[in-house]
Amino acid sequence: MKKLLTLFLLLLSCSIYAQRKAIADLPAVSPEAAGFNKDSIRALTDTIAGFKQRDYRGLVVIKNNQLVIENYYNTFWRNHIHDIRSAGKSITALLLGVAIKEGLVQHVDQDVYSFFSKKKYPSMHEDYKQVKLIHLLNMMSGLDADSDNPKTPGSEGKWMAKDEWVSYLLSVPLAGKPGQKWVYADINAVLIGAIIEEKSGMSLRDFARQKVFAPLAINEFYWYANAANQTGAAGNLYLSTLDFAKLGLLVANKGKWGDKQLADYDYMNRLLSEHSKAIGDYNPLADGYGMLWYRTKRRFGQREVSYLWASGNGGNHLVVVPEENMIIAMTSGAYGNWYPHARAYFILGKLFQALEKK
Questions:
Q1: What are the DSSP calls for 293-358, one per residue?
Q2: Residues 45 and 61: beta-carbon distance below 8 Å
């Protein structure tokens, strides 16, 4: 009887493992097989489980195209979708690469004005002839919009509740010369989403589903769209932690998934390398910014690491480490606080330190 029970448990374990690979669409390996110190990872897992705040959701690590760590906390599990907040901006930047691959957009030096019809949007400001896509991508549009200043006409409080917001957005004038000053503003990502919608004839949500999410087997997600079917491209995207990580892998692989090139290769190379220090000291965890992604170079123990990352309120981080061929996705519901970002940085450091020396 004992032998039968052992055999049953072994078969069950194999079945779960096979299901894990099939669902994730990635082979799964142990942390030690991927080059991590087993004891260090176990200690980190115990530390996360012991966090006093019960708002941590999930940690997924992919290395060398293999699923290495997939842990969930506080009643969350693989299929639970979660609001990644402003990390959605970085996904919008990825989708622009898909739009370029599809021929809907030619290059990032096109001006915003050229994508819209003055007849359809009569209030479109002439200033948009000076604003290029790269200015939006680098948060240097010069538009009179600042997410930290609700008095600016382009701040999200002025338009987010509208049933149709693109007409209003296109009426926002310049406050400075494009390309000169970094200002964090949701309008930049939303305009990129609006351009993709205008050229594709579908909502950004449906464009993402058809062109990226379906090929990556991302079946469960939510992305807010207003009554006019315009998607909240600056955030409002709910994903599972695992699917969040898959999108990071698509970035690391320069827009390629399996044998299919989903996003423009040259654009993805620029997304990985674009680095502007114009961000200044806006985010103490970032050294630069570019293509709606933060950039950082830090020393963790004996290891110096350069990486880019998407960041969302509440401690939602998607980290791409090209030199290690590694993706780290972290989800957290600690909205409105700073500590979850410091906590994510702590976890990131522990993961880097757990990597065995090459």
A1: EEEEEEEETTEEEEEEEEEETTTEEEEEEGGGTEEEEEEE--TT-SHHHHHHHHHHHHHHHHBPP-
A2: no
- Tell me how many degrees the CA angle 312-314-318 measures, rounded to the nearest 5: 40
Alpha carbon distance 336, 236 (integer Å): 15
pLDDT score for 4: 43
> Within 10 Å of residue 72's Cβ, how many Cβ atoms?
19
pLDDT (0 to 100) of residue 357: 77
How far apart are alpha carbons 188 and 99 in whole angstroms? 17
Q: Which residues partner with 327 through β-bridges?
A: 62, 320
Structure tokens, 223: 């992305």
Q: Report the alpha-carbon distance of residue 61 to residue 247 in Å, rounded.
A: 12
Question: Quick one: pLDDT at residue 131?
Answer: 98
Residues of the chain with pLDDT under 70: 1-24, 358
CA distances to 80, 282, 317 from 239, rounded to whole Å, are 8, 27, 12
Does this model's pTM top 0.90? My answer is yes
Q: How far apart are CA 193 and CA 18, in angstroms?
A: 37
